[in-house]
Amino acid sequence: MSPGLFLLLAAAAQGDTGTFVIGNFRFASGETLPELRLHYRTLGRPRRNAVLILHGTGGSGSQFLTPVFAGELYGAGQPLDTATHYVILPDNIGHGRSSKPSDGLRARFPHYAYEDMVAAQYRLVTEGLHVNHLLLVMGTSMGCMHSWLWGEHHPEFMDGLVPLACLPTQIAGRNRMWRKLIIDDITSDPDWKHGDYATQPRGLRAALQLLFIAGSAPLVQQRLGPTRDSADAYISRWIDARLAETDANDLLYQVAASRDYDPSPALHRITVPVLTVNSADDFINPPELGLMERLIAKVNGARYVLIPTSERTRGHGTHTAAAAWKEYFAPFVAALERR
Question: What's this model's pTM, rounded to 2 decimal places?
């Protein structure tokens, strides 16, 4: 790591952090929470060029401080240079240090959906951070899907959208099937006890194994496990590490939150420029379905980029490997700033 990058990431790690509390938050299900806590981190100083970056299922805002993302985007002269941009990195409902089932409510925690998460993000930005306009809303995976919802619900609040690694339609086919299997792995385990377990249910291991496959890519996994023994060792380490940090109820809620996502009927409401990027080796959003090509035509002026499989792509995880898509992202942001 170069000294400049080290200093950049060190500064980012010391960025402003806080928790915004929303009282009596009402969920789309009709459930309420007396206090909904939303943890966030901001980089840079508040100014016109505010950027909201939204993480994926099981992630947190801190994932955007890694070298493969921050090192490509936040430095001097880079597209989201934090000397000239105000970057907002929230932990979504049910994730990171924000309110989630494992805080104590377990399965009594409100059953949040993507609409709730976007509503809370909007209140964080407007009420918590007092930002009345965004240059850009961008997101990865689940955050990608949230980006489409932002464009529909708040079409004049931002100048542009960059959804990374998702499709603007309901989750169906294999993409829904592996999610349903994760839900079943947890809830069909007697050890789950309707969410009131004392130790993590055994079904969590099977759920994490499915999660690994969904995020995998042949070239990446071949590099990580080029022999039988190295492959066995790698996957054992990966599962053990995730078991140590994952709560079954949290994962169950995170995966189930996508149940009613479907922005496709309202894509015409999006009026700002859109750059949406997928990669050809994405297990979750396989390009051979041809869905994006049909859907993107409903969004006036949107551009869809499908990145070919290469040594730079990481399957679904290409969304955070900014070097793979920065050549498209940089001119897109520059054009927004010239408007």
Answer: 0.96
